[in-house]
Design goal:
alpha+beta, single chain, Alpha-Beta Plaits, 2 domains, 4-stranded antiparallel sheet
């Protein structure tokens, strides 16, 4: 039998292995800490730039709002009211003139579900100079009007469609017109979308 006897005064320690392991761990921790410090400084720098950009945009918006208030004040002066009213009338007339029934019918045809028939269309201009439509439709059930609203929501030409009223038809002889529904929606013509894209 062979016995190993250590006659040293202290137990044997493999210090090279110990320092290699802990040294590697220490280097990894230093590199990780350096990366985190760099990431924090980079994030802080980017945040300062974004906040500066946001403050500049807010200042620009505030300046434009001040200019708008000043322009409205000038237009509301007694000597300028005639010019203001004439300008509003001309702008509204130009907007009405730009409305295309042909384009509206084409856009409605794309979203109209089977079995639903348009009874009337009433376009108006709201206070924000947008085309507001009131569309009355007939169908065998209310599901046709619901499908029309869903199709409008998917279209880029119609915004915020909603069924405002539903009435059952008193004409029992025509089952295809059992339910009449009124739908309101904002309409954006194709030309307006193209101008906005530019």
């Amino acid at each position: 039998m062979r016995l190993t006897i250590n006659l040293a005064s202290r137990p044997y320690l493999d210090e090279t292995r110990f320092y290699r392991r802990w040294g590697t761990g220490l280097v990894v921790m230093i590199l990780f800490t350096g990366f985190m410090v760099w990431a924090s400084v980079h994030h802080y720098s980017q945040s300062r730039k974004e906040w500066a950009s946001a403050r500049a945009a807010q200042a620009k918006l505030a300046e434009l709002q001040r200019e708008e208030v000043e322009a409205r004040r000038i237009l509301n002066e007694p000597q300028n009211r005639g010019t203001r009213d004439e300008s509003q009338f001309l702008n509204t007339a130009i907007l009405r003139k730009s409305f295309s029934w042909t384009h509206l019918m084409t856009d409605l045809e794309k979203v109209m579900p089977a079995g639903v028939r348009v009874v009337s269309i009433a376009p108006n201009i709201d206070q924000k100079k947008r085309f507001a439509l009131k569309v009355s439709v007939e169908g065998p059930s209310r599901q046709g009007a619901v499908d029309l609203v869903r199709n409008m929501e998917k279209s880029q030409h119609f915004r915020s469609p909603i069924i405002t009223s539903e009435t059952a038809s008193e004409n029992k002889t025509n089952p295809d017109a059992a339910v009449k529904s009124d739908i309101t929606a904002l309409y954006t013509p194709a030309e307006t979308l193209e101008q906005g894209a530019e």
